[in-house]
Amino acid sequence: MGYPERRRARSGARGRGVPPRVAELRLSASLRFSLFSAILVAAVLGSWYLTQSQPQPPDELTDTQSDESYYMRDATLLGIGDNGVPSYRVHAAHIRHIAMDDSIELTNIRVRFETDPDAPWTLNAPRGQIPKEREYIDLIGEVTASREPGEGDELVIVTRDVRVLLEERIATTEALVTMNMGPHAVTAQGMRAYLKQDRVELQSDVHGLFAP
Prior knowledge:
Blueprint (H helix, E strand, L loop, with lengths): L12 E2 L8 E4 L15 H4 L22 E13 L5 E13 L4 E11 L7 E10 L5 E12 L7 E11 L4 E12 L2 E11 L4 E12 L2
Antiparallel strand pairs: 1-11, 2-11, 3-4, 4-5, 5-6, 6-7, 7-8, 8-9, 9-10, 10-11
């Protein structure tokens, strides 16, 4: 699945703004954004299953080949929930482990969360990195998160450079955030999303455009 089509908000009354510094949005259960309940490393946790790979490393990575302990190309990884059913799928054009600092690098990432089969989430980013501690993943560049419409309108969040704490399931960014749902749009500077609680805090400079 490619980048979702963003919907342009129709003209309407501009919101009056949010008085506090932090604007809190509570999402319904259908908007559950269960991002990464396990770590993206099959060799470390054993809860991931490689479904596709090719033996040759990508050409653009050959300059650091001597630092790699393994690499995968056009690979799909599965995150398995407590019930034994896949809860998400991570596809990347290239995945490589850097032996020098024990980090993991991914390119052209597409993450699909299937915790809610009626409204699955897809997350796209050009690059990602997991440090040796395996406590978080950094999604680098433009990050687009979209929820396919189950009930109601599609929700699309566009921002940059998101850090996701894997165990706590908290996603943060200091970049500009744009949220679109149907004819409504909200922008802000910075975001802190508590994914387990379905709660999103927009940090500052919050503006909204709401169509009647």
